[in-house]
Amino acid sequence: MARSEFSAWCLMLGSAILGTLTTVLLSGCQPPVPLSTVTLAAAAANETVVADVDKSKSDSGSAADVSEFIPPAEVIESGKEWPQWGGTRVRNNVPNAKNLPESWNIGKFDRRTGEWDGSKAENVRWFSSLGSQTYGNPVVSGGQVYVGSNNGNGYLKRYPSNVDLGCLLAFDQKDGSFLWQHSSEKLITGRVHDWPLQGICCAPLVEGERLWFVTSRGEVRCLDTKGFHDGEDDGPVQNEVARVGDLMNSGEGSDYEDSLSSLNQGELTKSLTKVLTDAGSEPEGDIEIKTLAENKSWTAKGNFGGVDRTLAIKQLGPRISIFKTLSVEDKQDADVIWVFNMMDELGVSQHNMCSCSVTSYGDLLFVNTSNGLDESHINLPAPEAPSFICMNKNTGEVLWTDQSPGTNILHGQWSSPSIEVLGGVPQVLFCGGDGWLYSFKADGGKDGAGELLWKFDCNPKESKWILGGEGTRNNLIATPVAYDGWVYVAVGQDPEHGEGEGHLWCIDPTKRGDVSPQLAVKLEGDSREPIDHKRIQAVEPEKGEAAVDNPNSAVVWHYSLADQNDDGEIDFEEEMHRSCGTVAIKDDVLYIADFSGLVHCLDAKGNEDGTPIVHFTYDMFAQSWGSPLIADDKVYIGDEDGDVCVFEFGAENNEPIEEINMGTSVYSTPVAADETIFISTKDKLFAIGKPR
Prior knowledge:
There is one protein chain. The chain is mainly beta. It has two domains: about 35-55 and about 240-325, no CATH class; about 110-240 and about 335-515 and about 555-690, YVTN repeat-like/Quinoprotein amine dehydrogenase (Methylamine Dehydrogenase, Chain H, 7 Propeller), CATH 2.130.10. About 5% of the residues lie in helices and about 35% in strands. It has a five-stranded antiparallel beta sheet with strand order 11-15-14-13-12, with helices on both faces. A five-stranded mixed beta sheet has the order 21-22-23-24-28, with no helix packed on it. Strands 3-43-42-41 form a four-stranded antiparallel beta sheet, with no helix packed on it. The protein is globular. Mean pLDDT is about 90; it is low at about 1-65.
């Protein structure tokens, strides 16, 4: 089979297929009103107030105390929880989980009805339905499991499955029962900022009863993990406004005009009653309608779905929209603590989506803003907006921002930060949209800025960025991993750009300044003048420019290709390709999957001369988006065909002992906690474990 057959990104989101899919699924489905309009509607009803974060409670000048952060070893020692992407702030997906199965059978699902035949299922504790496309990784903490997805399952009556949302879902860890959902309505600007059907693509951070994540709307949100099940509306955000439903103006003969007239007369029509009933808010008894502005704004006071409340009703363009304020009665909705809108407050313009799995250090929260290009893939709408920010995790106050990639952002910025004490200094690692890895001191900064420690260009200087993935210059989509004093990261691009040349780096984080492998210079006779980094191509030889070795290079070793069979030729399986994946390392054995579907196993220490030691590569014959899980002396890696390869851990084990199909694509990374493997497929979450 020719490997080129696998080069197109065919399931997600190649533009032709995705455009057709979007048209089919969303035909006739109107985009929701932007939340700014919703808030105004609620305010017009004099009912709801969304409180601002009380920034006066934070200490903007405080630095994180290392002692405040639980060391990663203590977090994972019991193997009971996996509370963020990568498990800990160092992002190495190697939990101390035990008694995990090496094989399982998910049974069969009827493609038409979704009905499950579990007669042949093995080692499946439970499964829960997700949306129609899921790219978020599971997080396990406090007896609950969290996954980002879209609204394809329609858990909330007020948001049926044909309404496109970004959803963060919470399930009970014991039986997979649905607990609550945070719903992010789509941005009115459309796919340039909020690509259809992608949902929430990041993983949340959970600490105790608090959860932090980034929405598809470019917001950083802090939630109460218990939701409203604890009988409290935590704050400072309280009485949050939520959509109940809409009555669309479907044209001549519709009940739209009659409904406007009836509202002016203090009555609900059958059509409006049906909207409320379908959303689980059926009117009961007498309902008092009050007109605030004729044909424009009303309130409805009474009992709705068994709860006494006042609704806000607004005429907004081609629809009549109904809103409520969330309360402790709304058990299936999320309880929001604070919200920070990066688009409004910082001028960020994310490309296609906002996606960053945040992490913390003491009271500090670190976030990649996802600032990127517009639909032209050439213009940068917000060149002054920050790409990386540090916040107070308790209040949502921004402590410092950084714009290091500047105008050199290649596409989007969707990576996630990692943190470790390296060389005695707490460092937070940020993957810039220019293909550089940046390290900042993990503290509260000074005068609104972070302290840059070092930066590393992860692309060869003569590599070139070409639209659509045709070039050799790459982004950083993976998350950097800290292991035994060194840092590891691979380059990649948006999967829509297909396969291409890749690089995996091992970096010494104790150096300072520009620690790239080479420097870009202008040759003028015998002189070499340093030149600033350029977005498309750092070094253009035809212009008298050259790449010279950097005496301050932090490269420990570099892997792009290796002639493993010593035949003098480089085969496809002997190359490192673009990767969305993050490395996982245990006992100096490193695993990573590239987007071409190759599993690479290397020695994490490499050779003293800076060359890699490659133990083996294995071809899964399907593109891989995720990262390896190393646990219980096994390695688990999923692919786009829906197969999960299971290897015995160790450099000598170059063939999987099992390849288990999950029914649909596995875009995410398996995680393990409490003797259970959690895998989110394209549309389901599985809890896999041996019988208790």
